[in-house]
């Protein structure tokens, strides 16, 4: 694994670490030298992944985390601090989808999506910021928060209005957090991946519709999950000291 930026000495809490982007980031950050805290509701998966990281020589801890529940968020940070000290690198990645046209999505599914994709980012980032400020981040300048958005936040389309709007919401939220904490030594940035095959899409890309979507991309291919690695490491590392309030598109040109 190519590691362009070191995270040695950092402690990263990754929300939504049981699959997809979060699981990838956990493996990546451990390889880059960070202490990694894997937060998710599916603890059987995070326990197994944490053990895999430890067996490979890394440092990892799996913690139960429901990002929609403030008490669960607080408990996850408590466990992380007990194991590794203050969390200085926060990856707000947990998210769900509610596919379907706006006229078809039930109100309870919409509420679940907003609770996870917006409220969850708010609670995870806010709790991390509170603890960073209390630990002296203003003087250290060591706080890093990366919010995982989506290129859908910049597009229109059929079948993902609620998801796209939630990602647009956390983009603006992230910029406001960056402004609010700019003098507290905390950098907040947003990364917008393109379309990548992960568990959240199920078998969509094996269907005729999914194949047609790929054929419509300029490069006629899906983006690889590994293509996010350099930007994620950069935004989480000391190298990004002067970068805050930015939203970065990494999508293989899909949104052009």
UniProtKB/TrEMBL annotation:
Keywords: Membrane, Transmembrane, Transmembrane helix. PROSITE patterns: ADH_SHORT. The chain crosses the membrane at residues 12-38. Belongs to the short-chain dehydrogenases/reductases (SDR) family. This is SDR family oxidoreductase. It comes from Parasphingorhabdus flavimaris.
